[in-house]
Amino acid sequence: xxxxxxxxxxxxxxxxxxxxxxxxxxxxxxxxxxxxxxxxxxxxxxxxxxxxxxxxxxxxxxxxxxxxxxxxxxxxxxxxxxxxxxxxxxxxxxxxxxxxxxxxxxxxxxxxxxxxxxxxxxxx
Length: 124
Known about the structure:
This protein has no helices and eleven strands.
């Protein structure tokens, strides 16, 4: 079992930056791809970004491409989401997720473990 806990959310003005972290624990010998999803009130959960185990491959939603960067430090069992040029429409609860196998990357059903989420609010 993999336990994931997000941190780093908060309130930021439009145009500002924020870095989210996701700490993983409890697994033994697992090689996981990691992803970030977000969900705003009244909206569906949507894909944000994902990264392979060795960081060789990344994928981003079109809405955040060029503004967000996903990275990971496997020695620390931590994945990050650097968010720059934030917009009010980025406001959502952000969730960290882990997957043993990724094919299409952008669908939540491919992910096996989820964190409880962290709130990001961007004011205009």
